[in-house]
Design brief:
Two copies of one chain form a homodimer. By secondary structure, chain A is an alpha/beta fold. The first copy, chain A, has a single domain, classed as Cytidine Deaminase, domain 2. Chain A is built from nine helices and six strands, in the order H-E-H-H-E-E-H-H-E-H-E-H-H-E-H. Chain A has a five-stranded mixed sheet, with helices on both faces. In chain A, helix 6 links the parallel strand 4 and strand 5. The longest helix of chain A has 17 residues. Chain A is globular. The two termini of chain A are 22 Å apart. At the A-B interface, helix 1, strand 1, helix 4, helix 5 and helix 6 of A face helix 1, strand 1, helix 4, helix 5 and helix 6 of B. Strand 1 of chain A pairs antiparallel with strand 1 of chain B.
């Protein structure tokens, strides 16, 4: 359907006079966040919550199969758990990491999650961030990145296009003082992407059909 | 001042219960857009409008010295001209390109500016996009990128951190069917960055003071 491919289906109209884009999570996300413990101590607990959100986002048809959480690095206090919102918000920038970083900064009143006076913050994602989100996390001020996995598997399973990371991305993170941990609940994450692929839910790459 | 560095100064409070981040331009931007011709035919005319917005953003203290416009590629119809809003919106993702792409998609009712049924769109920026915005433009659906310049000069003049582009970024654009044109009003753009640097206006890199 044309509506699904262009993203006009969700609202059914254009907004030619729109003067703002509101980055918002679905209502269920706030209800689920309220039901979580306020602190999640281990990387596995944090990732399990992220994977739960990624699955729910597909089940509720409120965005792509990606979720991202911002926690205080040491105590595991949840700041926000966000999900991908590209299609419902009609915004190709509304990846889970951009949603999480933007909402966390708003809630903490600070555009730099690594500013003096704040505890160190960690970003937890159900796969390695894409080209855009890798840049976004560099500017966010986070001091720790935890992913369920990295490499070509997610793209191969789902068909999402992740774009180019810097060839030395692990060193780039290290140079900027951002600790990295990969492969936390990797098998569970890949299983969820296989479920997504089997569901027939839409993949929202730009310029569909014209990529070589 | 602590307030300036952390970005809490603009609103003077935190928003712990905030459930959305609103990507908004300053009022002056809409007034200036209304005063522009509805079509700007040449790359130089489009860039001049972008440079005008970048300068005004510093003058009004409404964000960093960057602006980005989305135009229809062939006819030059203005969709939106946006500016950097990191500090006022307390959002490290609110670079000019992210603002322009997000607002353009909202106004056109489509998360893919390159979707079937839309005219081709062009992104015009007063310097080469940073690591995040390079990814953002790949996902936006634009089919043409025009910049005032690229290379280390802007970072050297202003102190802004742009992060790593893919080593083969020109080929990456070409592979994805995005035409590229550099060095449109380059000297004028660099002169504006020198003015910015001389003004003492804030530079908002993340984790100030801890980068090596």
């Amino acid at each position: 359907m044309q509506e699904d491919r262009t993203g006009t289906g969700a609202l059914g109209q254009t907004h030619q006079q729109a003067r703002q884009v509101s980055l918002e999570l679905p209502d269920w996300a706030w209800e689920e966040m309220a039901a979580l413990p306020s602190q999640l101590a281990t990387p596995e607990e944090r990732m399990a919550a992220v994977l739960h959100f990624a699955r729910l986002n597909t089940l509720h048809a409120t965005g792509g199969p990606f979720a991202a959480g911002i926690f205080t690095r040491d105590s595991g206090t949840l700041v926000v758990l966000a999900v991908n919102r590209v299609v419902p918000l009609i915004c190709s920038c509304a990846h889970a990491e951009v949603m999480a970083i933007s909402l966390a900064q708003k809630r903490l009143g600070c555009f730099d999650l690594g500013a003096a006076g704040l505890p160190a913050h960690e970003l937890v994602v159900n796969w390695m961030p894409c080209a855009m989100c890798f840049g976004a996390l560099l500017w966010s001020g986070i001091r720790s990145l935890v992913v369920a996995g990295y490499g070509p598997e997610m793209e191969a399973i789902t068909g999402f296009d992740e774009g180019p990371l810097p060839p030395d991305w692990q060193q780039e993170l290290a140079r900027r003082g951002i600790a990295f941990r990969g492969n936390v609940l990797r098998a569970e994450s890949l299983a969820a992407f296989r479920e997504f692929a089997a569901s027939g839910a839409p993949v929202y790459n730009a310029r569909q059909g014209i990529l070589p």
